[in-house]
Design goal:
The protein is built from nine helices and 16 strands. It is an alpha/beta fold. It has one domain: Metallo-beta-lactamase, Chain A (4-Layer Sandwich), CATH 3.60.15. The site of zinc ion has 4 residues, from loops.
């Protein structure tokens, strides 16, 4: 098995919304805001090459929305999904599985593209099965008012219409290499995969801890629907990771890809800041 960090580009989100109750005087030192209070965030996916399968976990924001939509998110940097796949000798048509932690637009926008000739929204990975789960799917297609702006129909419904959607049945061991946690603090049934790699494990943190600095338990996003649950879920995963020396992989951290958390008297904290390629 081989694992690769796949950078799909950076975007910006309001720093206050990203750090919840943490004051700006504190978070601004960790991820400095621009003049509009916006901070830069990565959309970093994980590619798993295993025998004849090639699975991508999440797929970035994509490029099909209009100018007005993108004017809110300030895409920047030189990375794109296609360029990052090509760096490792892959093409999007090689992908056999798209694992969607959840269906917020910055995680699944790249799943669907606009076909300019037909004007239709079509799967951007023609040969892939797309994995979600029933609970989360329901929450995404009938969204509550708070999350509605994050669940965009054009990112979601075409997956089902294409016949490429499959549901993971339950939390727990999914296959030989992957264990999946269901998490309900950020949104309903977000899936956090734990991937066995040689003697170690990599945990894809998605929005359970979008960045290294969000490892601190009270650092939960203003976007989270159930912040107290999010804190408890994060605490459990960090405890597990510290005890097992698991590698935490950050999807949104603008700079830091990974760490192995450390157990201290004050609880679990982030360890050395590392690149996935240094660890494996
Ligand atoms: Zn999210």
């Amino acid at each position: 098995m081989k694992l690769y960090a796949i950078n799909t580009g950076h975007f910006k989100l309001d720093g206050g919304a990203m750090f919840g109750v943490v004051p700006k005087s504190v978070w601004n030192k960790l991820n400095p805001a621009d003049e509009n209070n916006m901070c830069s965030w990565a959309m970093r996916c994980l590619l798993i090459e295993d025998n004849n399968r090639l699975m991508l976990i999440d797929c970035g924001i994509g490029n099909k929305q209009d100018e007005k939509f993108f004017s809110f998110y300030y895409l920047h940097g030189n990375d794109t999904l296609d360029k990052s796949l090509a760096l490792h000798g892959f093409h999007r048509n090689d992908i056999t599985d798209i694992f969607l932690t959840h269906l917020h637009f910055d995680h699944c926008g790249g799943a669907i593209e606009l076909d300019k000739t037909s004007g239709k929204f079509l799967p951007a990975f023609p040969n892939a099965v797309y994995w979600s789960n029933e609970d989360h799917w329901k929450a995404a297609v009938e969204p509550n008012a708070r999350e509605k702006a994050s669940f965009l129909k054009e990112n979601i419904l075409p997956i089902q219409e294409s016949g490429q959607l499959k549901f993971i049945e339950k939390e727990g061991q999914w296959n030989d290499q992957m264990f999946i946690y269901y998490s309900y603090g950020h949104t309903d049934a977000m899936m956090i995969p734990r991937i066995k790699y040689k003697e170690q494990e990599v945990i894809f943190m998605a929005d359970l801890s979008p960045s290294y600095h969000h490892l601190k338990i009270p650092y939960v996003m203003g976007y989270d629907t159930r912040p107290l649950n999010a804190m408890e879920e994060k605490r459990k995963v960090l405890q597990y990771a510290a005890e097992n020396r698991s590698i935490l992989f950050f999807e949104h951290d603008p700079l830091i890809e990974c760490t192995i958390p450390i157990l201290t008297e004050k609880g679990v904290i982030g360890g050395e800041r590392m690149k996935l390629s240094d660890l494996l």
